[in-house]
Design brief:
A hairpin with a 5-residue loop joins strand 1 and strand 2. It contains 15 helices and 13 strands. Helix 6 packs across helix 8 and helix 6 packs antiparallel against helix 11. The chain is α/β, with parallel strands linked by helices.
């Protein structure tokens, strides 16, 4: 999917911008400004990032009030896009979350993405609007499964490796959930020493068998006792009622344990204070001033976690309420049975031997009930351990498969290594510096682990020790993806991706992006500022040929300041 043209229309139907994009090669959004004293004011208020976000909207992004504020609602984006060699007119109105027009036919955002086969997880890896937190995405320090899978797809790695990676992530998540479940049970059991659980289960089995044998012996004695003046049907009814009583008691006991577990979770979470206000107080103690934007993002994160916890807490409270209602009903039934047992017991108690054996039977039954409950809880932990062992064995298999498949993929990875080596030398070598730059890229399987994620990505550049080397590595990955990916035919990058990089490397990166995008018939859209470029003849020519819009203090994207 490529964007060929974008018109920005104001709410009063005035055309603000009409921008034509290069179908192949580089399209530059050029900020015609020199290095300012106040960088944020001069370079961040022209509308370069906003224009990239408008393009992102056309490519199926959700509404984002942080970048596109509500003051811009009712502005209209009219785009001409190409999809599978067919051109479509797209109209998206800012603030309208329900419909997007394709050739004047309305679609909801979900339907819109389905129409153009938009996979936003893949798209996000090619639409880079913020500084990277790691080599493959801008959203988290440790990429999650979807982000890693998307990167592997884009870099063109063998699908078998992707399948193994997907499976390993899933199994690791299952092991994590099992361990959390086990931890909850250990808390309920007053943190019984974990190493002795199997030993305790073994001893309990012996004790339970012994109690069951004793109960059977007592039961036989009761049956053989000759009771005068007691009818057989009264004894049988007492036995039935007593059995029913014990069964209901066990059910209530089991419900109480589950209620205790859920209330313990709610109480434990309520005692955790990770609120924004708490975090801000910590920073105040160390006299560290936090920007207002960070405070706002902390608040958003807090609300997000509060909403998740609130939903789970609501479900748990409903479950607790249901169990308590069940217990109430069962207790009422117990009282009825108890009254009946008392009536029958008065008749039966006239026989002293019978009464003594009944008391022994009751005591043994209670002991057996307690032992079986403890056995059940400990056995559940043992079963969790068995499942963890099973999943750990599955990890052995998939990690071994992953290692072997990476070995089989060596030829392709060598191509990636050679290309990155070539790209790094293009960026760093010139007439003044003819020294070869040692740049190394590798992708491999890590050693098997229940927690650590399976893929190891490495980029080493010996030449550059400056502050911009991390961003150069990120850009080299982007260039690799642009060259080798078969999934998407576009690449979008904000000028922040070049912060801290030497202006010579920035200029050479843009020249390289243009050559690769042109050769591979892909579209690379990049915003850049004049002060970020090394102004030799080659870069001046590139800007003249590839610039699609020039923004400056007198020509801002929307013709006014909206921040």
């Amino acid at each position: 999917m490529k964007i060929l043209n974008l018109r920005i229309i104001s709410p009063n139907n005035q055309e603000i911008q009409n921008i034509k994009f290069n179908k192949d090669g580089l399209s530059l959004i050029y900020g015609d400004i020199s290095m300012p004293d106040d960088k944020s004011k001069t370079s961040n208020s022209l509308g370069k990032s906003l224009l990239l976000k408008f393009i992102d909207y056309i490519l199926g992004a959700n509404n984002d009030n942080k970048i596109v504020p509500k003051v811009l609602n009712d502005y209209k984006l009219i785009a001409l896009v190409e999809f599978k060699n067919i051109e479509y007119e797209i109209i998206r109105i800012l603030g309208d979350t329900k419909r997007i027009l394709i050739n004047e036919e309305a679609y909801e955002l979900t339907e819109y993405k389905k129409f153009f086969k938009i996979d936003r997880t893949l798209f996000r890896n090619q639409i880079i609007l913020t500084t990277r937190k790691n080599l493959i995405n801008s959203y988290s320090i440790n990429p999650n499964k979807e982000e890693m899978i998307s990167f592997l797809k884009l870099i063109g790695i063998n699908p078998i490796i992707i399948e193994d990676t997907d499976k390993i992530y899933s199994i690791q998540d299952q092991i994590k959930n099992l361990k959390n479940s086990k931890k909850e049970f250990l808390v309920i059991l007053d943190e019984l020493e974990e190493k002795k659980i199997k030993e305790q289960v073994f001893y309990l089995e012996k004790e339970i068998k012994k109690l069951e044998a004793s109960l059977k012996e007592i039961d036989n004695k009761i049956k053989n006792i000759q009771i005068t003046d007691i009818k057989k049907d009264i004894i049988e009814e007492y036995t039935r009622k007593n059995t029913e009583f014990k069964k209901i008691e066990e059910q209530i006991f089991s419900n109480n344990i589950e209620i205790e577990r859920m209330e313990s979770f709610i109480k434990e979470y309520d005692n955790i204070d990770i609120s924004t206000s708490y975090i801000l107080k910590l920073y105040e103690k160390v006299k560290f001033e936090i920007p207002s934007l960070v405070k706002k993002e902390l608040t958003d994160v807090e609300k997000f976690h509060q909403n998740i916890y609130s939903d789970r807490k609501k479900v748990l409270k409903e479950q607790i309420k249901t169990l308590k209602n069940q217990n109430k009903s069962k207790k009422e039934k117990l009282e009825d049975i108890k009254e009946k047992l008392n009536q029958l017991g008065k008749v039966i108690s006239e026989n002293k031997i019978y009464k003594e054996n009944i008391e022994i039977f009751k005591n043994y039954s209670k002991k057996l009930e307690d032992k079986k409950y403890l056995q059940g809880s400990l056995s559940h932990i043992v079963k969790i351990d068995e499942k963890i062992t099973q999943k750990d064995n599955e990890l052995d298999i998939y990690f071994a498969n992953l290692r072997n498949n990476f070995i089989n993929e060596k030829t392709y990875i060598n191509q990636l290594q050679d290309s990155l080596y070539e790209f790094a030398n293009i960026l760093y070598r010139d007439e003044e510096n003819s020294k070869t730059v040692n740049a190394y890229f590798n992708m491999s399987s890590k050693k098997k682990h229940q927690i650590r994620r399976p893929i190891d990505l490495t980029i080493n550049i010996d030449y550059d020790r400056g502050e911009g080397v991390g961003q150069v590595k990120n850009n080299l990955i982007d260039i690799l993806v642009l060259k080798f990916n078969k999934e998407l035919n576009f690449f979008i990058q904000d000028s922040c991706c070049y912060s801290g990089i030497d202006i010579r490397q920035v200029s050479k990166t843009l020249i390289l992006l243009d050559k690769i995008a042109t050769k591979e018939k892909k579209q690379a859209i990049v915003s850049i500022n004049k002060f970020q470029l090394y102004e030799d003849e080659e870069i001046k020519k590139l800007v003249e040929e590839k610039e699609i819009i020039t923004l400056n203090e007198n020509n801002k994207l929307l013709k006014f300041d909206f921040k």
